[in-house]
Every structure is written in structure tokens, then in C-alpha cells.
Design a protein that fits this description.
It contains five helices and four strands, in the order E-E-H-H-H-E-H-H-E. By secondary structure, the protein is mainly alpha-helical. The protein has one domain: Hypothetical Protein Ta1238, Chain: A, CATH 1.20.1200. The strands form two sheets. A two-stranded antiparallel ribbon has the order 1-2. Helix 4 runs antiparallel to helix 5. It is elongated. Keywords: ATP-binding, Cobalamin biosynthesis, Cytoplasm, Nucleotide-binding, Transferase.
Length: 190
């Protein structure tokens, strides 16, 4: 377990931060951007939970925990050295992706097929979940950009891809199972 006795350390005052393996990098490093955006997403999920109830809140709680796992995975490069590590790093696993897929399938079964694109909105929870969806897409873009140059656990990328889909379907559920979705009307304001 992590113990934080002192919140500020002054070690980042010159624009660097430590990765999970102890290496220092610029705070604008691609890896820091990737896990920083997953942290930002986690904060938006926390805001969405303010409007969520019961099962949706429980599922969002699991996602928040997964996002901390994902950030821990991203902040620890050099996957090839995992077996040699004194303390094996936390890595995302396939079962986390499979859980999202099962939840997507279950939620989607209650929804009528879409006949138009959806505008973010409807209920407060749906609007918050659409923000989460777009931030998840940005986190995915940053993770795939990082993967072009460095080792990234494929389960991280897959999880983020499924997560944005999860948020989309959950946003429809939050809009009275899609009945209150705000549909795009192409060219309506011409």
C-alpha cells in the first residue's frame, strides 16, 4: 500500500517527474501525458458518479480503480524487465477488458438500435459520461502514440478502446435506456 506523508517534495520544481522505475523525465514526456490523461479521466468519472446511482455507480467505481491500475502500468516502462523486478509492476490484464465487454453487451441489450448519431446531453449523468467518453478517446490516442515509440502493454490500449465504448453505451442507459437521447439532425440549422 502507498503511504503519503508529505505531499510536496520539490523534486519536480525544474519540470521533471519520476516514473515508476525511478527514471526522471520531463513532465511533458509522452508517457506522462498518457498516464496523466488517464488520471484526468478518473477525475471526470468521479464527477459522473455524483449523478450515478446503484449499479451504475458501482460499475463506475470499478472503472476508477482500473484507471489507477492503468496509470500504474503506464508509469512503469521497460516491460521486458518485469520478471527481474524486485516488486513486479502492476499491469492491466485481459480480464479487465473482458469485464467491460460483458457490461457493454448487457447494457446494449436494453437499447434500441441507433438511427442517428447522438449529441452529448440528455440527462446530467449522460452528459458527464459523454465527457468521460471523449477523454477516454484522448487517453487512447496518447497511449497509441506512446506505443509507436516505447513498450506499452497492449491491454492498456485495448482497455481504453473498450472504455470509450462503455461510456457511450452507459450514456444511452442514463438517458432512459436511449429514449431521451438527443439525436443529431444533419444540416438542421442551414
Amino acid at each position: 500500500m502507498v503511504t503519503l506523508n508529505k505531499i510536496y517534495t520539490r523534486t519536480g520544481d525544474k519540470g521533471t517527474t519520476a516514473l515508476g522505475n525511478g527514471n526522471r523525465v520531463a513532465k511533458h514526456d509522452a508517457r506522462v501525458n498518457a498516464y496523466g490523461t488517464s488520471d484526468e479521466l478518473n477525475s471526470f468519472v468521479g464527477v459522473a458518479r455524483l449523478a450515478a446511482k446503484d449499479e451504475m455507480d458501482q460499475r463506475l467505481s470499478l472503472i476508477q480503480n482500473d484507471l489507477f491500475d492503468l496509470g500504474a502500468d503506464l508509469c512503469r516502462p521497460e516491460m521486458a524487465k518485469d520478471a527481474e523486478a524486485e516488486y513486479p509492476p502492476l499491469r492491466m490484464v485481459e480480464s479487465q477488458v473482458k469485464r467491460l465487454e460483458a457490461e457493454i453487451d448487457e447494457m446494449n441489450s436494453a437499447l434500441a438500435p441507433l438511427r442517428s448519431f447522438i449529441l452529448p446531453g440528455g440527462s446530467a449523468l449522460s452528459a458527464h459520461l459523454h465527457v468521460c467518453r471523449t477523454v477516454a478517446r484522448r487517453a487512447e490516442r496518447l497511449a497509441t502514440e506512446l506505443a509507436d515509440h516505447e513498450d506499452v502493454n497492449q491491454h492498456v490500449v485495448t482497455y481504453l478502446n473498450r472504455l470509450s465504448d462503455w461510456f457511450f453505451v452507459a450514456a444511452r442507459i442514463a438517458n432512459d435506456d436511449g429514449k431521451s437521447d438527443v439525436l443529431w439532425v444533419p444540416g438542421a440549422n442551414r
